[in-house]
Amino acid sequence: MLKKLDKLILKAFVGPFVATFFITLFVLVMQFVWKYLDDMVGKGLDFFLIIRLIGLVSMTVIPLALPLAILLSSIMTFGNLGESYELVAIKSAGIPLLRFMRPLIVVTVFVCGFAFVVANYIIPVANLKFTTLLYDIRVAKPAFDIKEGIFYDKLPNYAIKVGKKDKDGNGIYDIVIYENDYRMQDNIIVAEKGIMRVSADKRFLEFTLKNGWRYQERGNRGTSHSARETFRHFGRDLAFRHKHACR
């Protein structure tokens, strides 16, 4: 009698648990997709690379999805049993509440152990691989982290705005580079088009700009002077110090 009851409750629990777990996992993963959607579209990333990124993100949110899945599936399970009056029949047979909840308690303990193993051993590795992979993508395509029409200020003392980017992630147009440092120097570079790439040692962003002008102001208060010059071809290196961590 009790073994059949345990099988009945487990059978009623497994289906909703699997469904709610994958739905919850999907919702949590979509947060990552919406955050990086603009950067991933049109960058030439292959299908398997995107699947790998989503897989690594899925590993990191499993401990968050499991408690929600247990809660929702438990509510659905006992709600369905109560709606069909099976809970009334169980109570009428003299079976206490904790006894017919015992199989779910055992399952929950195993799920908690699995969540601990994932959080302790899998998530650190997944976070490392995800951060490394995202860093490689940004280094290979430096314009990956710069959005069109928005000032990018992740580089110290620099603010960069790009009006338009090529699909290859390197060609840029309508560039504005604003520099301000501790020496009270204002330096503005405006160019019609250019190319942005990472140097061989991966320490600098190399800008090759064409058809633009440069405004520079130097000195302290009362002794400052400014200069404005136009150019047809101009090269500039910016310190590549942005920490490529998953936010």
What brief labels describe this structure?
5 strands, rod-shaped, disordered C terminus, about 250 residues, five-stranded antiparallel β-sheet, single chain, 4 helices, about 50% helix, alpha+beta
Order of helices and strands: HHHHEEEEE
Roughly how many Å is the radius of gyration?
A: 28 Å
Largest sheet: 5 strands, antiparallel
Shape: rod-shaped
Name the helicity range: 40-55%
* Mean residue pLDDT: 77
Poorly predicted tracts of residues: 239-247
Number of folding domains? 2
Q: Trace the largest sheet across and list its strands.
A: 1-2-3-4-5
Query: Which band does the percent of strand residues land in?
Result: 15-25%
Number of strands: 5
> Structural class of the helix and strand makeup?
alpha+beta
What is the first-to-last residue Cα distance? 53 Å
Q: Number of helical runs?
A: 4
What would your notes on this structure say?
By secondary structure, this protein is α+β, with helices and mostly antiparallel strands. The chain is 51% helix and 25% strand. It has four helices and five strands. Strands 1-2-3-4-5 form a five-stranded antiparallel sheet, with no helix packed on it. The model is unreliable at 239-247 (pLDDT under 50).
Summarize the structure.
The chain contains four helices and five strands. With 247 residues, it is an alpha+beta fold.
Topology:
Elements: H1 2-40, H2 47-83, H3 86-92, H4 97-140, E1 158-165, E2 171-180, E3 186-198, E4 204-218, E5 225-239
